[in-house]
What we know:
Layout: H1 9-20, H2 29-34, H3 44-48, H4 56-69, H5 73-94, H6 128-148, H7 158-172
Helix pairs in contact: 1-4, 1-5, 4-5
The structure holds zinc ion.
Residues 22-23, 54, 87, 91 line the site of zinc ion.
Amino acid sequence: MANAAALERRDRAIVTLAGVAPDLDGLGALPELLTRHSAHPLDWFSRYHHVLGHTLGFELVVTGAAFLLATRRWKTAALACVTFHLHLLCDVVGARGPDGDQWPIPYLLPFSRAWQWTWSGQWALNGWQNFAITGAALAGMFYLAWSRGYSPLEMVSPRADAAFVAALRERFGAGKVGAPPRPARQPAGLKEGDE
Length: 195
Ligand SMILES: [Zn+2]
């Protein structure tokens, strides 16, 4: 999704992070695991996963943050909104727990409990479908990195990303696509157009 429009590196990162943001509510898994056998176990994962982050309320927070942080605000916020919902859709379609729990998505929270999204055809989180989709997504990522000259690695290290792209182009050739050269790196900190 971050590649759906011509966006700067920073805005692409915002769109990508919006897609994983819902699972922030799964961070309670760590304290829950660590305190499992203690006298006062914390059930933060069981209690909050999907209830805090996989909701319209959090979606508004994420899209709002994307709007404020982005350089191209409207486009980035719109794509962040789409990736966020894509995450929810994928959870409904293919994230059945090992115990068979469907993890219904209470989409309208905190405004209403009326909707609890589930799908009877939901496959398991470790189902073959997810491996197939992951394989296809990786292949797509490799292709985009090769043709456009950047990959999600850019969020971690632009230098590692450049090395990755160079390796791909050395292996698979670079001529045909006619990719434009990488745009000059923006200095860290505020850029023109930021506020
Ligand atoms: Zn999720």
